[in-house]
Design goal:
heterodimer; A: 116 residues; mainly beta; 0% helix; B: 108 residues; 11 strands; 57% strand
């Protein structure tokens, strides 16, 4: 059963702590993405990766870090430098790079991060 | 001005109504247009995908693109309570951009 999985579903963090959100896909997609979703603001791109061992900053990368050591996995670390980390985080994947039908993105179920 | 504008609603309609959801955009490079449906506390799921101007129909859903006006629409016929969700438009060209989403409630 192909798809994208994210874990955990809910995550609580104390201020000053780093946390890592997991994203795994078995769709054999080359590209993977991390978005942040806040009420009334839609999806904002944090980081994306078009190929293993390479990734690019999105619109709001400050306070976040990623790695892409395997095609299937694209974990996101929310660092203590992120000033307002409470949000719903969505991972997505697509067949190819931006532009064109290969860019249609498929989303995971999301992780809700709350900073206490 | 945002690249993609979408009325956030909320939009509330009775069951069986025709629903019209819309987005406008400013970037002429967008060529591929998508609609996603997102249920509460879930990830968005791809609903419709269209390329360039024209209409595309899938069951009760019709996606319409007017590139000359930079305007896209999603129509839902015979709306059902199960259609209650947030609908996100998305468009792709040089990169991909999403609308903020319109929250729809269909009342029985």
């Amino acid at each position: 059963d192909g798809g994208i999985t994210q874990s955990p579903k809910y995550l609580f963090r104390k201020e000053g702590q780093n946390v890592t959100l997991s994203c795994e896909q078995n769709l054999n997609h080359d590209a993977m993405y991390w978005y942040r979703q806040d009420p009334g603001q839609g999806l904002r791109l944090i980081y994306y990766s078009q190929i293993v061992n390479d990734f690019q900053k999105g619109d709001i990368a400050e306070g976040y870090s990623v790695s892409r050591e395997k095609k299937e996995s694209f974990p996101l670390t929310v660092t203590s430098a992120q000033k307002n980390p409470t949000a719903f985080y969505l991972c997505a994947s697509s067949m190819g790079e931006a532009g064109g039908p290969r860019d249609t993105q498929y989303f995971g179920p999301g992780t809700r991060l709350t900073v206490l | 001005q945002k690249e993609v504008e979408q009325d956030p609603g909320p939009l509330s309609v009775p069951e069986g109504a025709i629903v019209s959801l819309n987005c406008t955009y400013s970037n002429s490079a967008f060529q591929y247009f998508m609609w996603y449906r997102q249920y509460s506390r879930k990830g968005p799921e791809l609903l419709m995908y269209t390329y360039s101007s024209g209409n595309k129909e899938d069951g009760r859903f019709t996606a319409q693109v007017d590139k000359s006006s930079k305007y896209i629409s999603l129509f839902i016929r015979d709306s059902q309570p199960s259609d209650s969700a947030t609908y996100l438009c998305a468009m792709s060209g040089d990169d991909m951009r999403f609308g903020a989403g319109t929250r729809l409630t269909v009342k029985p």
